[in-house]
Amino acid sequence: MATGKKSFIAYADWKLTFDELPDEDAGKLIKHIFAYVNDEDPETDSILIKAVFANIKTTLKRDLQKWDSQRQQRVEAGIKSAEIRKRNATLVNGRSVSSTVSVSVNVNDINKGLLSEVKTSDVPDDLKEYYKIALEFQKLFIKNQTDRTVKPTHQLRATFKNYVDPIRLILQQDEATKEDLLDIYDFLNSNAGTFWKENILSTSKLREKLPTILMQARKPKTKQNIKYNDKL
After folding, report:
1. For 114, which DSSP code?
2. With contact defined as beta carbons under 8 Å apart, do 156 and 139 qualify?
3. What separation in angstroms does the CA of 72 have from each of 48, 66, 69, 77?
4. Residue 197, class by beta-carbon neighbours within 10 Å (0-12 exposed, 13-18 middle, 19+ buried)?
5. pLDDT, tens digit, for every residue of 99-129?
6. In whole angstroms, how far apart are CA 203 and each of 118, 131, 138, 163, 184?
7. What is the structure's pLDDT at 137?
8. Which residue in 62, 160, 225 sits closest to 217, CA to CA?
9. What pLDDT score was predicted for residue 226?
């Protein structure tokens, strides 16, 4: 097990394997597993234990690689956050003073402002990508409303927070990808997405219906569909 890792995942479907083993072999197998995850390099003369453990070992290695990847991402995020805080430090009377308060005020002001009026240079670095994606979807929603001769009142009044937060949550919490959003953007900008054009008029609604729209967006595309995803 990697340094700093104090646990591992035991899967419910392993029970089927253990149920098929005699109690003595099942006990040997679980002890073998614990020895392995504690880096004891266990060995066994039992061909049965070796064969059964081979599949479990593959799963444990896969989980370890995933854990290592997530840990590295957290480390990189921490480094990036530290760099941002360092850039936001200002000198007051010759001393370095964190400007967290003023930055927080600026972010709060941006959150309340209209999305279309926010300047890219004013958006915090960690929100820039979400902001750009939200802005492109806002333009698309306005276009879809205008094409239907409906005044896009709500879309024009969209605030930074109300439009950017759903995009951030889609990518961070819902674990969707940018490619997913590109496919949905194309779909809502095509004849194939006519029904959804009338129903998806905000990024919050987009998040709510994301799985359904994505499934339909990835059906075989017709020649009428036009790609616009280079905008995102």
Report:
1. B
2. no
3. 36, 10, 5, 8
4. buried
5. 454 444 467 778 888 999 999 888 998 999 9
6. 17, 11, 8, 6, 12
7. 94
8. 225
9. 47
